[in-house]
Amino acid sequence: MPRSPSPTLSDSELLDSIADSFDYSAHREARMEALAQQVKAVKNLRETGDGEYGRVVEYKEEKGMIERMAKEKYCLINFFHPDFKRCEIMDRKLAELAPSYPHTLFLKASVDNVPFLVSKMAIKVLPCVMCYVDGRAVDRLIGFEELGQTDNFSTKALEFRLQQSGVFPRNTSLSANLNPLLVGKGRQANGKGSDSEDSEDEDERRRTQQGRGGIRTGMASKGDSDDDDW
Question: Domain Phosducin spans what residues (predicted)?
Fold first, then answer.
């Protein structure tokens, strides 16, 4: 068979030629413009709905909350009691997560103010985080049983668990749209490389999955619990 003609340039010369012809500045400008559009979109979300996005909003009127969540693509509700310590912990952790997921509506309601929903959803243990997609309940997180049954669970553990429910849309958080090179530089500045981060993430996943039941069953696993019965 006839052999292909040899290239005029050597491999190294060919690579240099490609590198010289690539407009890195234009590529960087395009990336910066895309990121600016993402920031603008997040800002618009936060400015709509009376600033409800990017934070946890408490509803004290049941009818209004039902109407609000029915209009939302992604929504979670933290059912709590003001006298329960673990409800306060869950509320604080969700408040830390909310700014990272501006496409998800974070709500909370005292069980005293929403008796119909408490009965309808058969909420017996607090705290109880209900996850909704297109107005339909898809998952629930009951107490701390799936978070290691400890008051000292990490925000990352809670985030990983809620990601399994589908209530956080993929690739819409600001961190997901950052240039990986910029993220890598940030890790090095903190004295951690990507291998260290990956190892920590894997350890966190293993700890979170211990004692988990079915994700979509919404049923707590058997055993002793420090969560508060309602």
Answer: 27-171
